[in-house]
Amino acid sequence: MNVDGKQIINGVSATTGTEFFYAVERVKGNRLDTRFFNASKADIDMAVTVAQQAFEVTRRKSGLEKALFLEAIASELEKAGPQIVEMACLETALPTARIEGELLRTVNQARLFAKLVRDGNWVEAKIDTGDPDRKPAPRPDIRSMQRPVGPIAVFGASNFPLAFSAAGGDTVSAIAAGCPVIFKAHPGHPATSEIVTRAILAAAYATGMPAAYFSLLQGDKAEVGIALTNSVGIKAIAFTGSNRVGRLIFNAAAARPEPIPVFAEMGSSNPVFLLPQAMAERYEAIAAAYTNALTLGVGQFCTNPGMLIHESTGAQERFYENLINNINAAQGGVMLTDAIAHAYAKGVAGRHANEALELLAQGELPQDEQLQVPALFKTNLNTFLEQPQLEEELFGPSAIVVAARSKAEMINFAEGLSGHLTATVHGTEDELILYKPLLEILETKVGRLIINGYPTGVEVVEPMVHGGPYPATSDARTTSVGTGAIYRFTRPVCYQGMPQALLPDELKDGNPLGIWRSINGQFENTSISK
Amino acid sequence: MNVDGKQIINGVSATTGTEFFYAVERVKGNRLDTRFFNASKADIDMAVTVAQQAFEVTRRKSGLEKALFLEAIASELEKAGPQIVEMACLETALPTARIEGELLRTVNQARLFAKLVRDGNWVEAKIDTGDPDRKPAPRPDIRSMQRPVGPIAVFGASNFPLAFSAAGGDTVSAIAAGCPVIFKAHPGHPATSEIVTRAILAAAYATGMPAAYFSLLQGDKAEVGIALTNSVGIKAIAFTGSNRVGRLIFNAAAARPEPIPVFAEMGSSNPVFLLPQAMAERYEAIAAAYTNALTLGVGQFCTNPGMLIHESTGAQERFYENLINNINAAQGGVMLTDAIAHAYAKGVAGRHANEALELLAQGELPQDEQLQVPALFKTNLNTFLEQPQLEEELFGPSAIVVAARSKAEMINFAEGLSGHLTATVHGTEDELILYKPLLEILETKVGRLIINGYPTGVEVVEPMVHGGPYPATSDARTTSVGTGAIYRFTRPVCYQGMPQALLPDELKDGNPLGIWRSINGQFENTSISK
């Protein structure tokens, strides 16, 4: 396999860094042959410099040109599919079917943003044609639209080696905006990242895009990411990962002479609320589906439902019985990296040692130290309120069940929550109406409120919000999934009194792109006749 | 006049703070009678607590209810107009005609946001009706819209005692979003702020809104603002003022356990580019209009054009002659506060002392120490590149003219610029096309690009962008003028599988509000038939 372990900057594989690390065949624990070099300061500077140069080209690309590039990325990913899937499975221990599904999602994401920029409506074109007769002075012609901000640093996530990695949603939304990407690969899957980078570059070559529209940096040290964050030419950062690292990057970016926005998705524990009637009617199905959502992919999802709260009702014994049996029967799995497995094991040990938590169920303990198993604990509301750290995400297939004694306690619990990506409520249609106050509280706590479903499996559709109040993300006004993700990398630019010939096509009277625009306050997709 | 100098929290005038300061009759320098009390920590905590409670009400208000409140604010401001104008002129030394114009603008802003929320299209309703037949699992129904974030701290600006103050654009956009406002008055016009607060509260009372939708805090110490910034219940901050104070607030907000966004508009020096043919054809008119824009209101505008750059051409002598005569003849004026007058005098003295700057013209030096006069300096490109501090805003009617020897030098100058609110280019239609590369550079440096106009006089229209890259603002993705200002205070919330009865009206199939929505990727203002 064509992997050489260096940075890929401006289309060239090279490194001045000499420190290196190895990719690992995760299940067997064997090192792969290739050495991956930590990007040096010089490598980073070079990547940022060529990205700044490329921005002069990429910011002028039309929606159609960017769509062709994104579609070519999709095609190249499909072409390299078998190689990508094999390597991603090898590096992450995720099963083939999961990685194949993730590749499909990644390809679809690229095509979603291609469609977005091909349609062109996303630019938020707004036109006020002015008023030449206004007194004391005429009101000038004023028009505005979204324009790209500049080079973006994207940090790959460990748990989605494709969909939140080199060609993932952050990259394709930045490319769609017209922003060059400098991609810092996650050290958990450096070879996969390199193979995907070559697919992106083949697409750039095929569609006449500058090679520096996308560069790859490798590194298994925090220094690489911090140096990238501090690079003057970087205008925004997209990150998916832990709260600890996300906050580190956020702090560094805020302390720069020129602060830049950081869009960090830092996970959450995604509480699930189980209302009494739903529990009585569907305890078996919910126990099964909840176990599945919790243990799927060894629980390595940002949207993993790590908290479950219910009221004390007659059905709860049967629910617990099902849930405990399911968790006890659940298989363990190899986690994504040593560090993640270690953190999970430590977290579960902490829950075992916590006297306020009762162990309900734990998957079959394996012979293999690499394998981690689901673990379910129980507590009451008071403990939860006294130990706020219980609300923090434990990345992996462990959950805490909170037994509330009443509806009021359940609402208290919801009010005390900090920010999460999602909250889920299971209830019958009648009881959901009775629990409207609960839903109205949860709406202020999360980016996505799910009724009678499960938070895992984030659909890539226009209305999706994969975000939420801190600490789920560092900027609740944004999403990293769905078409809204593009606005992280754009800003509005206003043209006052600009001659028609010099306006962007999106703002010309003739509306040559045929896009929807707000013209003097009315949505129209027609031209302006004067 | 009914001014008692205390905080107004939850509709009640009271203070636990005991430190105080006085408002000043600016032109004469006399203290007004009323003492204004610095808000204590207890006052601030109380204001934030009641704002959090009010948010439970305000976030549920319909667009129509918020529109009625905003329209009532507009009417109450008109009713109190004479009193407001008198006090604002007294406190700021700004002339009556200017303040009357600013009041009209402030009233219009409130009505603009009333119209925005009455129409309701602003919420960015997006609907994906799902796919029950998708394999392996159905795609759920997913809908999203913008929702308010919570209590907002607004810091009043010195230079717009109405339009960027208590009932200014930040306040009315936050109210339109459904967010309670805690307003920290600028100590330069505390009495005006109190009178305007009473108008807002009269409107709240008349339209059944909670009194804590808007609270007033007074203070002439940085501690008041920092304590407000650090209050857990505050979810975002809007600020207009100096770079020094803006960055102080930004840093404090970023260092909070839960960081919050700060939308700081920190001014800029707004370069004006004068192309050769325009100079030859219109030197007299441009010299006159530029002088007017520079000296208007003693130059106390964020968009004041403090830099002018031109190429060496035959017409430049005549242009300079006109410009120098105009500036020499320009009147001085009393600046907004002692601190501002002192900073301006110090800045102009620094320019006098700078050997690389040549004094071209200075308004007639007054007898009165309070009066500050316009001052025009000249330098060349190299000096400008060597002394980056020359690019920083000097708040007041002083400008630096940069003589470029060629088109290339002018483009170099543009490339070296940091972020500004605006850039302006004067050119004939033909030469603007020749200078397209200049326009394309400037677009990356500013929020608004003005052709053959002047940056002062920010129109309150939908496409307006009053923002720009750092250091002009702390978040270039936003604007503080125009309808886009509302999105600083909202975030998208996504509802998955939500029953119709529990969805917000904006997202219901029947579209009871008749708003424009994106439904499965198509813009429509109709209902969804199933």
Automatic annotation (TrEMBL), chains A, B:
Pfam families attached to this UniProt entry: Aldedh
Superkingdom: Bacteria
UniProt cross-references to SUPFAM superfamilies, sorted A to Z: ALDH-like (SSF53720)
Keywords: Oxidoreductase
Key word Oxidoreductase present: yes
Protein name in the entry: Aldehyde dehydrogenase (NADP(+))
InterPro entries found in the cross-reference section: Ald_DH/histidinol_DH, Ald_DH_C, Ald_DH_N, Aldehyde_DH_dom, Aldehyde_DH_Superfamily, ALDH_KGSADH
GO function term, MF aspect, one: oxidoreductase activity, acting on the aldehyde or oxo group of donors, NAD or NADP as acceptor
Chain coiled-coil ranges: none
Keyword Oxidoreductase: yes
Organism expressing this protein natively: Mucilaginibacter straminoryzae
Occurrences of domain Aldehyde dehydrogenase (ranges): 36-461
